[in-house]
Amino acid sequence: MSSPATTRPTPPTGETPAEEPLPSPYTPDREAKGAHKQDPTAFSPSRALLQNNPSARNPFLPQKNFRTGKWISPRFGLRQQADLVKLAIRYNVEPLLPLGRKSTEFKATRLAERGLRIKGTGIGQKVKGHKWERTMETRLEDRRKAMMEMPEMIRLWKQRGHGRGWQRWPKR
Amino acid sequence: MAKKVKSRTTAVRLISMAMTGYYRTLIRPRTHRPLSMLKYDPVVKKKVLFLEATKGGKAK
């Protein structure tokens, strides 16, 4: 898809056809918003963790042979790494293991990085949400206040003959 | 044409004063005074006061 205007059916225009497509009044698609656009060359802290140092090879990471251009597989495959890391976590010796895709540090870094990509999780961002979500706080506050006043209200109600003597009923 | 005869009883809505939106519908004689009673509100899980709502949807 090159632009959202080319794929959308345009309304029939009159005598004056517009040269430049106007911005759509409807919700732009994901591509137009750039939600999934990622720069592959951008710095990524999690990817930076997984750099294999040629002089001290990490057995959990693959290594590129720059002369032949071929990749050498990690000594331990991902499945073995996962088993090792799980075992290490169980015996609290995970810091002794070399860093890999399965280590907690890498996973935490990646999560922190990806968390920012999710709409509404960044600083100062929020999503609209459902109405019940938006009004939840005030409703709970109202309920809490009403429950605080409830014993007093019941006392008055009993005092005034179970509502018989109430000229004006309490406002909700 | 003859006027439509109103029934002797009327269905009323008793609204929980705990502001939970919970209500009970009861039938009372039309000429009776407004109903009010202590009833269990499952939202706050307590017995609370229920008052009759007027037709307009608000308790006076």
UniProtKB/TrEMBL annotation, chain A:
**Ranges for the Large ribosomal subunit protein mL59 domain?**
40-159
Q: Which Pfam families match?
A: Mitoc_mL59
* InterPro entries assigned to the protein according to its UniProt record, in alphabetical order: Ribosomal_mL59, Ribosomal_mL59_dom
GO molecular function per UniProt = structural constituent of ribosome
Q: Where is the composition biased (Polar residues)?
A: 41-56
Give start-end positions of Pro residues composition bias: 9-26
Where composition is biased (Basic and acidic residues), the residues are 28-39
Name the GO cellular-component terms. Answer: mitochondrial large ribosomal subunit
Q: Where is this region: Disordered?
A: 1-66
Q: What is this protein called?
A: Large ribosomal subunit protein mL59 domain-containing protein
TrEMBL record, chain B:
One GO biological-process annotation of the entry reads: translation
Compartment(s) of residence: Mitochondrion
Its keywords, alphabetically, are: Mitochondrion, Ribonucleoprotein, Ribosomal protein
For the keyword Chloroplast, the answer is no
Q: Which InterPro entries match?
A: Mitoribosomal_protein_bL33 (IPR052008), Ribosomal_bL33 (IPR001705), Ribosomal_bL33_sf (IPR038584), Ribosomal_zn-bd (IPR011332)
UniProt entry tagged with the keyword Mitochondrion = yes
Signal sequence span is: none
Q: Which Pfam families match?
A: Ribosomal_L33 (PF00471)
Q: One Gene Ontology cellular component annotation? A: mitochondrion
In alphabetical order, the GO MF annotations are:
structural constituent of ribosome
Q: Which family does it belong to?
A: Belongs to the bacterial ribosomal protein bL33 family.
Q: What is this protein called?
A: Large ribosomal subunit protein bL33m
| Organism of this sequence | Penicillium alfredii
Organism placement in taxonomy? Eukaryota, Fungi, Dikarya, Ascomycota, Pezizomycotina
